[in-house]
Amino acid sequence: MSYSLEQLGRHVQGAVHGDSQFNVLKLRSLEQATAQDIAFVNGEKYLEQALASKAGVLIVSKDLVEKLQTQFQLIVVESPYLAFAQLTHLFADTVEFSNIAKTAVIHPTAQLGKNVRIGDYAVIGENVQIGSNSYIYPHVHIGKNVSIGHSAWIESHVSIFAEATIGDQVRIHANTVIGSEGFGFAPYQGRWHRIAQLGRVRIGHQVRIGSNSSIDRGALDDTVIDDGVIIDNLVQVAHNVQIGQHTAIAAKTAIAGSTKIGAHCIIGGASAIAGHLTIADQVQLTGMSMVTKSIHQAGTYSSGTGLLESAAWRKAVVGFRQLSEMPINKLLKQIKVLTARIDQLESHQTVEQANERPNPNDDKKNKL
Amino acid sequence: MSYSLEQLGRHVQGAVHGDSQFNVLKLRSLEQATAQDIAFVNGEKYLEQALASKAGVLIVSKDLVEKLQTQFQLIVVESPYLAFAQLTHLFADTVEFSNIAKTAVIHPTAQLGKNVRIGDYAVIGENVQIGSNSYIYPHVHIGKNVSIGHSAWIESHVSIFAEATIGDQVRIHANTVIGSEGFGFAPYQGRWHRIAQLGRVRIGHQVRIGSNSSIDRGALDDTVIDDGVIIDNLVQVAHNVQIGQHTAIAAKTAIAGSTKIGAHCIIGGASAIAGHLTIADQVQLTGMSMVTKSIHQAGTYSSGTGLLESAAWRKAVVGFRQLSEMPINKLLKQIKVLTARIDQLESHQTVEQANERPNPNDDKKNKL
Amino acid sequence: MSYSLEQLGRHVQGAVHGDSQFNVLKLRSLEQATAQDIAFVNGEKYLEQALASKAGVLIVSKDLVEKLQTQFQLIVVESPYLAFAQLTHLFADTVEFSNIAKTAVIHPTAQLGKNVRIGDYAVIGENVQIGSNSYIYPHVHIGKNVSIGHSAWIESHVSIFAEATIGDQVRIHANTVIGSEGFGFAPYQGRWHRIAQLGRVRIGHQVRIGSNSSIDRGALDDTVIDDGVIIDNLVQVAHNVQIGQHTAIAAKTAIAGSTKIGAHCIIGGASAIAGHLTIADQVQLTGMSMVTKSIHQAGTYSSGTGLLESAAWRKAVVGFRQLSEMPINKLLKQIKVLTARIDQLESHQTVEQANERPNPNDDKKNKL
């Protein structure tokens, strides 16, 4: 797994400055790279770090060439970060299983494309379809009527139910559940009456779902994740949620039932979004956001309080509680009234002073 | 899987308006239903949507019959939502495995009731008891001495340890862990000394636990989940927690050790409840609540801040921090003192004015 | 599994008061213990509970001996909590599988130490190393080149990838994923370009990781968890995070990428820590803390608001929003200005009054 500088340059469509036959062993960070390694410079702000690096080759943008070319061999590209992303694939692990394990239990009606690889003890149900070049890891369970596109990557202990349809080049990481039952119960006379969930999960192409996440099936209609969506670990996607194209959802976020999230959103980690809301396209939420109303405007939104030393925090919490009885605006109004009354007093005093004698101390600089 | 209108009416104890032999193919939402389908109308507020639906049959309450009977066949019930819940069971998927898989590893001392079904590669330990008509999915691991009642539903990749006792008609969804070790460590000289957990998990009847959840065993005494409790996905229930009957806990909630939650509570998603607290019956928490004290009164509680545009939010956070040094009540007190001083000044001025001349501008409307 | 009082005393290096041959059946809580059981008294504040206990033996510190010795047999130790932790190990369950299951799939190049036990259907990859006396539960998947030290405990449905190195006496609870892929994507022209993760996970000795947690592999460098760290359930540790020795992380915490957490920290449950931060040693966070900046000082920190009845909370949230337009300090400044103006008015009035007549009502007690 080593590449010539020429090969790497071609892979990222970059211009090579240096010995095209130079042999690159590893892709590493600026700090860790040594003379046989390649590293990338993610913009001007990493210039100092780059100059201190022991890397043999750097991936850079045009504007940094002059500053780095005497010291390093270079691959010059438009977006070094994108080029780095592309190169990681060359240096990634290969998968250790290369065919269909004898211990896999595959229903005779299942249809597997060319070059599908299935790990030990995987269980593949009735009428399942799996496209070509897909990897199914050990211990995966795929229930009946699920269909998966080509070049999929389904890691160990993933469970897929609910006749889910999954597109091409989808990656689902370990221990995630697709199509678990939505949390639907009709309350009646103090008890919860289960609503069997009848909808499916529909996942588009090039979707990525992290480990230990749960994507519930819809109640009647489907839960839908559009093309290019990326989801991190430990994320909850409840029944009938819809997530638009190329939206990114960071770890530990929860999205409650029937909420629609637009395209190209970025949801910060540990956020919670209530049910039955609509979030516009291009919305960004910072980490741990609490969303209780629909968001109709693109933009960046936040919630929560800053972190304080606990002693100060306890006092601020008291203040927050007091806000419920005396909002800021009411305080402001009281201050306005007082100000008006003082204005009046002062104008009266000024009249009196004018009547009596000049007062050189009547300084109005202090006024609001 | 199709039913006559008469069959459906009987199943929900409803009165049928229409052709009792009419053949219903699917249960769908008002929007998606077509002429062969049944949908339900969840109260007056869905009337408009109902009138626009293409459904062949609607489930309605009495008060809507007049408005809908000319256009639709009807099933008239007391609670359409409950009737809908009951009907979902008729239209639900059947399970794809119908006996005990040859690949299941079942300890010879395990006792299985009638019609128990066990999926491929499940592992059932010593002295395990499983009641009749229970389904154990592929890859489930049930450790020694666990007992499970009848009509249970244990999905793929569930792990059950700690001699857990589980009641009848319990559903545990995929990749959940019952009886994982409680987080108990004695700090001593800068290190954490593990407290092996000796308690069990006791789960009542008709309990539902979602996917990717963790229910820890007790330290010495047991962790207890009472009858009829429903728990969503990715929920943490720590050691020695007790949860009262028919309480509902939404996704991504965390309940710390030894906390007791009453009956008929509803805990909103992504809430966090500290340890060693007591929560009364009938408490409702809105989503993302942070509970650090016991709640002794039934009612609805919340915490957190609203969502703001990030620029405004940053300023509000500064304000929150300032509350720690200057709580609202202290501000109010200052305003009161100023008000008293102005009162005094004005009363003096009034006396003076009375002494001097009448002032028609002395308007007190502005006063607080 | 019963022990003499003498055996128990020796195990915790304590002084025995009572019949050294007394047979102890169980270790239980003060409330549940009966005449054949041992319980522990965790300090003076449990004295009343201790006096009411039916336990046969109590573990106590020196200062409580006098108050309890007439009623109970005692084991006297420096730290009863530590002694309790040590005793739990004597009373803990034994593991039910005692060798290498025939159904385990073990790559011929894997190296297993003495007395390694491997459960049914575990899958152990190429070049995996597992130290002596380690337990690998059923359905575990350990990918190629992973190394695990001696006396490890890896529970059911754990997935380990990314050539992770794991130290001695490490416990990883059920359904946890070690070495899942970090959430790294290069945004380019509205799409997310996957950065294949090339780093590993390095876990020290005596580390404990709970159930359903995700520890991602590093992007280029490694994710590192130092010796003695304890992590609870449903925790997210993103790529390139570093966690210092003996730090404790409670359930449902999320730590974003590249953040470094110091040694001997205690992170409360459901906390979220943003990426690329540095947290000093000895930092404690209370539950549900939101950390968006580095913490350079040891100490205890918090965030969030208190829990309020929802009606009051809604008003407080309005107040919080108003803080973004009118911070407390600005209000304070306005009040200061008003105070100065009133001071001025009063001093003028006092001069006038002195000129005119004495005023016995001129009480300044009310002033700020």
From TrEMBL, chains A, B, C:
Catalytic machinery residues: 239 (proton acceptor)
E.C. numbers: 2.3.1.191
Catalytic activity: a UDP-3-O-[(3R)-3-hydroxyacyl]-alpha-D-glucosamine + a (3R)-hydroxyacyl-[ACP] = a UDP-2-N,3-O-bis[(3R)-3-hydroxyacyl]-alpha-D-glucosamine + holo-[ACP] + H(+)
A Pfam family assignment: Hexapep
One CC-aspect GO term: membrane
Basic and acidic residues bias spans: 359-368
Domain named UDP-3-O-[3-hydroxymyristoyl] glucosamine N-acyltransferase non-repeat region: residues: 23-90
Domain of life of the native organism: Bacteria
Pathway: Bacterial outer membrane biogenesis; LPS lipid A biosynthesis
GO BP terms in the entry: lipid A biosynthetic process
GO molecular function: N-acyltransferase activity; UDP-3-O-[(3R)-3-hydroxyacyl]-glucosamine N-acyltransferase activity
Keyword Repeat attached: yes
Biased composition (Polar residues): 347-358
Region (Disordered): 346-368
Membrane found in the keyword field: no
Keywords: Acyltransferase, Lipid A biosynthesis, Lipid biosynthesis, Lipid metabolism, Repeat, Transferase
Family membership: Belongs to the transferase hexapeptide repeat family. LpxD subfamily.
Record's function text: Catalyzes the N-acylation of UDP-3-O-acylglucosamine using 3-hydroxyacyl-ACP as the acyl donor. Is involved in the biosynthesis of lipid A, a phosphorylated glycolipid that anchors the lipopolysaccharide to the outer membrane of the cell.
Subunit (UniProt): Homotrimer.
Name of the protein: UDP-3-O-acylglucosamine N-acyltransferase
Organism of origin: Acinetobacter sedimenti
